[in-house]
Input
Amino acid sequence: MKILGIDTSCDDTAIALLRAEGSEFEILSNIVSSQVELHKKYGGVYPFLAKREHQKNLPVVFKKSLGRRKPEEIDAIAVTSGPGLEPCLWQGINFAVDLAEKLKKPLMPVNHIEAHILANFIERDLESVKMPAVCLVVSGGHTSLFLMKKIGRYQLIGETRDDAAGECFDKVARILGMGYPGGPLIAKAAAEFNGKKSSVELPRPMIHQKNYNFSFSGLKTAVLYNYKSQPSKVRKSKEYIREMAFETQEAIIDVLLYKTLKAARNFKAKTVMIGGGVAANEELRKQFKEKINSEGMSFSVPSGKFCTDNGVMIALTAYLSPKRVMDFKKLKAEGNLNI
Ligand code: KG4
Ligand code: ZN
Output
């Protein structure tokens, strides 16, 4: 069957067409229209603008995702119903409902967090992933740890008390005057610093607390205080920016890895899976892989383009963990939808 996957939960308009038969998947198209340029000047996502852009982009991205195919070839339409920015989610939902009504095809709501976890199965054999798994979803909006017994069964075991890890990358990048989105920019600057001895010491919030929760707002504040204490010449220097980027990235990775590993040991996980935009971070992937493999567990992470928001993970989640809406009018955007 051919499933169309639509995601408008944040600032990317993403649509993909996936062919799925048994446990074989083929990506027929995967289009992501980024709004980065638009939101850059605000240093973050401005929901009203994002909503307007989704409305404008959806028909164009849909057409591109079809290529030469006819809309009638689509067998089911999957759309993110939450969590995310509600005005943005509604744009995707309205588009999906119209299409499902017009084509008389099933409409399948998808949880964006579950999709970030199941993105691990886009390029990996289903059977090769041994359960139970501990899953870390790290994105601009979420930092959550789950225990997964099988597809469709997840138990939330920890989450951030304040900012998400991606939000911390973005806010620190803004403090350092680097631009948006901060994650890739911090990663690049950190790589340029790597290998040198740093004089800055940033906190590892909540690392030794007896739970699986996270907190990143104090880390951002520590960067802000350090920045403010520096003479303007230092603050603007490449060396300082690289050093702060490196230290921020290390602090975030340290906390994420420590808590994920603790959960994996305690729940006797066979696999650790990560997903979400921050999981695209090369240094994080490297450190996770080394440490988790050294403890005899498997490590799984989607390739970078499937860590950040995309329509393929939405279509695949609808296929692997199907839900169906019979009365299209009942489908609602749920900004805080739980898994
Ligand atoms: O999953 P995603 O595309 O959207 C949400 O669901 O939030 O994640 C976006 C987040 C942003 O905060 C961005 O800065 C971060 O992922 N990100 C990264 C990297 N690429 C994207 N963070 C660190 N390193 C990266 N390479
Ligand atoms: Zn996401």
Notes: Residues 112, 116, 139, 276, 309 surround zinc ion (ligand 2) (CB under 6 Å). The chain is about 40% helix and 20% strand. The two ends are 25 Å apart (CA to CA).
